[in-house]
Amino acid sequence: MEHQHDVVGLISILLDSEKYKEALRIPLEERYIQSFKDNCWDLISNIINKINNNTITLKPSLYGACEELLSIIIDKATPEEALLEFIEQIEVAKNDAQFSIILKPLQQLLKKLICKRGRSLEWCLNSISTYIEAIPIPDHNLEGKERILMDSDDNIRRIIRVYSLLPPFYKPFINEMAPIDSNKKTPQIIASFLISLLGKPLIYIDLDPGSNSNGEARLCCSTILGDICLLVKNILKLLPYLEDCYTEVKNNTTRKTNIDDDVDLKPFDHTEKINITTLSGLFYGIFSTHFEVPDLAIPQAVKLIKAHISKFNYKGRNMLIKYIIDNANHSGMIGYAITLYKNSLDEAFQNKCLPDCFTGTHFNSMLKKFCHLPHGEESDLMELADQIITTLNFLRYIALKDTNNVTGIRECFSSIQNDFLEKLRMGLNMSKAHYEAKLKEIENKHGSKKQTNVAISIGGNVLDKIPKQNKKAIINSALNAFHLIEGLIGRLTVRKSHRWVKPTILAPISAKKSFIQPYSQQHENDKIIPTIISEHDESQYEDDIKNKILSKALEFVPKNGWTVEALAQGAETAGYPGIAHGMFPNAGGDLVHFFNVKCNKELVQQMKMWPKVDVNESKIPAQQVENAIMTRLLMIEPYKSTWPRAMAIQALPNNVPNSLATLLSLVDDICYFTGDRSVDAKNMLGINTLK
């Protein structure tokens, strides 16, 4: 009969005797392998009980040996059985050191259980919550400067220490969630756990940025809030849960849940995690401005502003938009407010009578806010680019839309010209001269000893303090914005009946080595010849900008679809402000049309390279037509996931003319380049049917 070895007792004795190397060799010896595997359950509890809060300081070798033994156990044991034992050990952990040493093997086991991770992860997080809730709450009524003493409390320090262990544990599951876990319940499980952490005991810790701005507790809380925003995306959708919790507290009732169906209960329906205390902690962190909310929430906030303003009548909308413009300190926000005003005005034009808030003094007052340069021609045009571009788009819109002068726009022409556009022109020439001089200085700094001393400040940041590799990119982006503004000013002269804006006069910089701007000093030999850009040149210039933006926007279509967001990101990638998407009134329609035209041109270039084939007038070149159609369809493949939306956009009434034009052009090109030069409409009809 084979002798049964007491592996548990043997390893325990070796650890107590500080014979750590011998203990680590036990799992590798052939005579102990099977016994070690059969007793993993008991070994886990025995090894963890060797750890206390002083072990890592007084006996680091013991702590390291225990960590390595636990790592060997999770390799040898059945994952499901080992997981249950580790979960139990968390709930009965006697100190934070035991809690800490359990987290890493627990994480490794969860990584193994990919298919069963959802439920297993929920059990693990529940046991962690149970351990955290058992931490004693500090009982100090400290106020004012006395609150600083809270950091010396043992329980406070313990709470902070335990919370700092959590992000390294759950972060890997968030990072790998997208490619592996298609179950939408898993993000909710983690999010509900993180929300529960914002309740007891964290709410008893001082998180005020005034007294504890760099504290570890604030850093932990900030990390948790960021991860919640990443998982939930739209934090505001949790407001109904807060309302339900408030009603329960007010009426002294409890949420009705079927205990028998607890397995199917949604993560956000667990009252021990989602309650008035935890949600209060969450929304305090979001709305108090004491913590930095991730940019993921900004698009939701922008949509919320639009939805909120649209709830009011026209007068109410104007009041809110005016408030935003008066209080916003960001050009992009002001530009967005101007866009909301333009949309409301366009909606109001559909009525028989325009509301009073869009006419006379009300309209004039709002227009002055739009056409405002804080420091005249010396304003920072780069910082104000979003506001300026949106304003110029609005001016062109109203000049073309209000042909009957219902708003009173014509009475504002002179003030707009003198107080806004003239100063803007001068500011453009000044800014371009400065930026071009700085660009030449950067490009020639190694080749010429004689350099100009030009300093540029953007939003209060001096360009010299920015890394060298980014300087040229910033300057080129600024120059692109200035060229775009010039193009928009030129657009205001398109219609003769509204030719109230003089074309922009471009003052070229002197060809001399010293970059002295012509507006500040002129030499006798310097001849500055004003050049008036013709309407054709302005149109071509504008088309070039549009094509650049549309071409770059296609890169973002797979992610954002045929939307304004793709156009905005395309504009930024092309070096223009994101607000430049206002140049495309049909938004997605313009982007789809550009894509179709671009693909048709590429197809023509490919068909030109195909070998010539003799075709009888009575026979359709089927193989060539099939190749052409297949080539054209393959061009859609990178955008396959978003193409149904593109087809829906093309079917909109305002986009139908362009859609039919590109389709007929495609059919005609295929007929011509596949060798079918017949004037017989039957052949073309056949190709049309194939399409």
Automatic annotation (TrEMBL):
GO terms for biological process: ubiquinone biosynthetic process. It holds the Pfam family COQ9_N. InterPro entries: COQ9_HTH, Glomulin/ALF4, Ubiq_biosynth_COQ9, YAP-bd/ALF4/Glomulin. One of its GO terms (cellular component) is cytoplasm. Residues 542-572 form the Ubiquinone biosynthesis protein COQ9 HTH domain. GO terms for molecular function: lipid binding; ubiquitin-protein transferase inhibitor activity. NCBIfam families: diverge_rpsU. This is Ubiquinone biosynthesis protein COQ9 HTH domain-containing protein. It comes from Leptidea sinapis.
